[in-house]
Amino acid sequence: MSNKEILLFDTKSRKLQPLVSSNGKNLRIYSCGPTVYRDAHVGNMRTFLLGDLITRLAKSLDHSVEFIQNITDVGHMSEDFVEDKMLAQAKAESKDPFEIARTYEKRFHADLKTLNINPADSYPKASECIDLMHDLIERLIKSNNAYVGSDECVYFDAQSFAGYGAISGNRLDSLKPGHRFEYTEDGAKRFHADWALWKAAVGRSEMIWDSPWGKGFPGWHIECSAMSLHYLDKFVDLHLGGIDLRFPHHENERAQSNAAINQDAVALWVHGEHLLFEGRKMAKSTGNVVLVSDLKAKHIDPLALRLCFLENRYRSQMDLSWDSLKAAHLLLQRWRQKVQSWKNDKEVDQAAVQRFIDEIVADLRQDLDTPRALQKLRGIEKSETISAANKYQIFIAADKVFGLDLDRQPYKNELPTQLAQLLEQRVQARTAGNFAESDRLRDLLAENKVVVRDSKEGQSWDWLI
RNA sequence: GGUCGGAUGGCCGAGAGGCGAGGCUCGGGACUGCAAAUCCCGCUACACGGGUUCAAAUCCCGUUCCGACCUCCA
Questions:
Q1: Can you give the residue range of the structural domain that contains A368?
Q2: Residue A454 CB neighbours (<10 A)
Q3: What is the pLDDT of residues A259-296, one digit of tens each?
Q4: Separation of alpha carbons A178 and A183, rounded Å
Q5: Given the DSSP bridges, would you call strands A275-277 and A280-281 parallel, antiparallel or unpaired?
Q6: Stated in angstroms, how far is A325 CA from B38 C1'?
Q7: CA at A200, C1' at B58: how many angstroms apart?
Q8: Which residues contact A160 (CB under 8 A, 6 or more apart)?
Q9: Are A89 and A218 contained in the same domain?
Q10: Which residues of chain A register pLDDT less than 70?
Q11: Per-residue pLDDT tens for A219-234?
């Protein structure tokens, strides 16, 4: 294995596979993006971090990368479009559905930025790619992979695609109709596992478009096929997404794309595992949804979340908790302090530094083994034989991929004026030797989540988390 | 029912056949007006039953328990 090769676990072959550029120029990467009908929660962020880590690593190894992530701003998430999520949210907020989409899209980008997740090269929107989807559907009808049903919807003929099920391990003959949701067989589909490529508008009046098959809106899976084939020029070296998209979304996307170009459209399928919060899957119905903004409100550095993610392998389920976030926050603060203290030392041994960096990068190239790489960093931090200057160089180099802003002063939310005044009063009380008063103020500040420390240099404070 | 993962000290969590990762909490000490922070010391675990091996948390077989997914979903 060359020292620029990145190995990733491919869901379809169930093996580690090298990430290679099929056109010899750049790595073409596609990631399923958010549906912008609500704020993305930290579980979504874990999946989006996966794309960031891979692209940062690839770029640090001098690969050229083209990274596309879609924005789903068209409501087609449900078979039953009465419950469509985009339209339901628009109704709930009494707004135009596209206004909802733009609002949450903006917040999605803001959250990425907060977590140092570098932006993709482009974010095509489903609503702006309707023509691409039409072209693709027409092509699939011509090749006999799709048909117009008696209800004017266009369906993909699942049985027409021989390799169906290769990603998820599902087989068409074992897929039972109506497994989970009430499903009424109305006879419009020829086979229960066929899925809609284009849905007729019927009673819907918003978010619909003209099409060769009448007014309607795209099916759930077609946008990713259309966009990835178009924007990445008919081949994807790496396709990313959350584990739950493995089936049916990626299975169906694969059938559509491969049928359309009559060959494999994706080399590697890589899936990020789910994030649990305090033992349970993060979901609105469970009531344990955590947003990036919730971290800031608790005075936790949002990058502590990033560090928590890095401490776990991307394809293991991980259980996040306020305790683990707090621990990561404190580690981050400690590292930033140490990095600042190492900065002034100038005794760099470039060869030694490079050896450590190579070891860390080797861990990352091995299916993004971030926990192992972080363990190396902890070892380097504690080492008594590595000079401060070398430690500084190693941490800064590692941070290019980790993205933890290690060369920065510790994170701190701003202090409200009222609390700043209490701090000032405490300094005066202490100067006057009035320890009863200074202790009272310390308790008062603690009630307001501010912890006070005294040292030879004087009083300092931090948010209690 | 099917598929895929897990089970490691008070808690979280990494483990690549052979030196008990690391973090958090807790206890002791130094420091401090008292604290906090920091530093030092302490707390010796791998679900169960077999097997392979000189040597098993790690490999093999079986058992129990837990989780996720199985046509909304990152």
A1: 276-402
A2: 13
A3: 999 999 999 999 888 888 877 777 776 677 889 999 98
A4: 5
A5: antiparallel
A6: 22
A7: 57
A8: A144, A145, A259
A9: yes
A10: 1-2, 76-83, 175-187, 285-286
A11: 989 999 999 999 999 9
* Residues paired with residue A272 on neighbouring β-strands, in sequence order: A242
Of all nucleotides in the shown strands, which has a C1' nearest the CA of A430? Answer: B33
pLDDT of A186: 60
The nucleotide minimizing the C1' distance to residue A429's CA is: B33
Domain co-membership, A261 together with A294? no
Strand partners, A462: A451
Beta-bridge partner residues of A35? A72
Q: Which nucleotides of B are covered by protein (CB under 7 A)?
A: 2-5, 11-16, 21-24, 32-38, 67-74
Cα A304–chain centre separation: 15
In a domain, A411, yes or no: no
Q: How many domains does chain A have?
A: 3
**Which nucleotide is at minimal CA–C1' distance from A328?**
B23
Q: A338 vs A38, A369, A398, CA distance in Å?
A: 39, 24, 15
Residue A179 has a pLDDT of 44
Looking at the structure, tell me whether residues A310 and A212 fall in a common domain: no
Q: Are residues A133 and A215 in the same domain?
A: yes
pLDDT reported for residue A80: 46
| Confidence (pLDDT) at A122 | 97
